[in-house]
Amino acid sequence: MHTRCFITVATLFFFNLPFPGSEWVHANQNPERAVLWIKNLNTEIVVPPIVSQGVIYLADQQGVVSALSTRNGQLLWQTRVEGSVSVAACLYQSFLLIATKSGRLVALDASTGASRWSFTAGGPILSAPVADSERVYFGAHDLNVYALAADSGNLEWRVPVEGYKYDGLYAAPELDDQWLYIGVKNGLLYALDKNTGVRHWRSQLRSAIYDRVLRLDDSLIVGAYDRSIYRLDAADGSVEWRTELNDWPQGTPLPHRDHLYIGSRTGILYALEPASGRIAWSKPLAAGFRHAPVRIDDERAIIGSFDGRLLILDLDKRSLLSTVDLGAELFAKPVVTREGVFIASRDGRVFKLDLR
């Protein structure tokens, strides 16, 4: 086996943080034998896995969907769908829902990989599907938001959003008990009745929205391509604050205690105060991020970087506890379960780690 993984204690010391008293502490902690197993699928993976009931599901850029045992990485089944897969899948009961660039949403039997139903939208699907107890929702590049019956794939409603030919829908929907929130590349953010598709409100931000909105109490938090994080009133879409960063925010912010944490394209980690949007601190940590930190437990979080390192952070103490060098670009965010941490590198390797 030619793949090597290096687990190293972080040796970076950080200075000159923008706010007094916010020093980032170096901690001498190192997870021993963190990597439990590695499975090489020999393909390009840019989306996070789905982990459920002892199985890890992955889809690649060639449309190949794989199911592995979480215990040892053994391949359980593998199938191919029509089109490249560039957005996360989701589970609905016993169905694994896969969206493709060819415009198809396919429901696979999670136990066998057999196709149960499929639906063809009017354009490529680059908005990850999200399911509730009845429906699956997604956006497509024909500038429509779709709601399908999750058990059959039958169309329940389709609602157009405003935009031009190349605007498109990249952001996954966010759901609450009544509303669906989704952003468009032209900077429009919509709130739709998730039962009917009727528009509740529409708000215009300054630039493109590529990532899923965070529903936080009575507000919505979202990043946009003008290098800003916005907080909006969930009731009417009015902007409560806008905070401009020094770089493009990536992913959906992680709320943790008194701050919102977000990574940036050039590897800066930001902590913002939710009430005001004030940047509490920021610090460059890696070559670049494509997602926000993911919580491990009440104290720690992890984030993968473009340079192949998985960073283990103590957000409360503002300390970089350690790094796990996986040796290839980490584009997809890790998934944390009770059984372990699972992550796929862009070169097609799947890792299970024990970070306890």
Could you please say which CATH topology of the domain at 1-46 and 254-356 applies here?
Methylamine Dehydrogenase, Chain H
Main sheet: strands, sense, barrel: 6 strands, mixed
Distance between the termini: 26 Å
**Low-confidence spans:** 1-22
Layout: helices, strands, pairs:
Elements (H helix, E strand, L loop, with lengths): L5 E3 L16 E2 L8 E6 L9 E3 L2 E5 L4 E6 L5 E6 L9 E3 L2 E5 L4 E6 L5 E6 L9 E2 L3 E6 L3 E6 L5 E6 L13 E2 L3 E5 L4 E6 L5 E6 L9 E3 L2 E6 L3 E6 L5 E6 L4 E8 L2 E6 L3 E5 L6 E6 L9 E2 L4 E5 L4 E6 L4 E7 L9 E2 L4 E4 L4 E5 L3
Parallel strand pairs: 2-31
Antiparallel strand pairs: 1-31, 3-34, 4-5, 5-6, 6-7, 8-9, 9-10, 10-11, 12-13, 13-14, 14-15, 16-17, 17-18, 18-19, 20-21, 21-22, 22-23, 24-25, 25-26, 26-27, 28-29, 29-30, 30-31, 32-33, 33-34
Polypeptide structure, described:
The structure is a single chain. By secondary structure, this protein is mainly β. The chain has a domain at 1-46 and 254-356: YVTN repeat-like/Quinoprotein amine dehydrogenase (Methylamine Dehydrogenase, Chain H). It is 0% helix and 47% strand. The protein has no helices and 34 strands. The chain has strands at residues 6-8, 25-26, 35-40, 50-52, 55-59, 64-69, 75-80, 90-92, 95-99, 104-109, 115-120, 130-131, 135-140, 144-149, 155-160, 174-175, 179-183, 188-193, 199-204, 214-216, 219-224, 228-233, 239-244, 249-256, 259-264, 268-272, 279-284, 294-295, 300-304, 309-314, 319-325, 335-336, 341-344, 349-353. Strands 1, 2, 28, 29, 30 and 31 form a six-stranded mixed β-sheet that branches. Strands 3-34-33-32 form a four-stranded antiparallel β-sheet, with no helix packed on it. It starts with 5 loop residues before the first strand and ends with a strand.
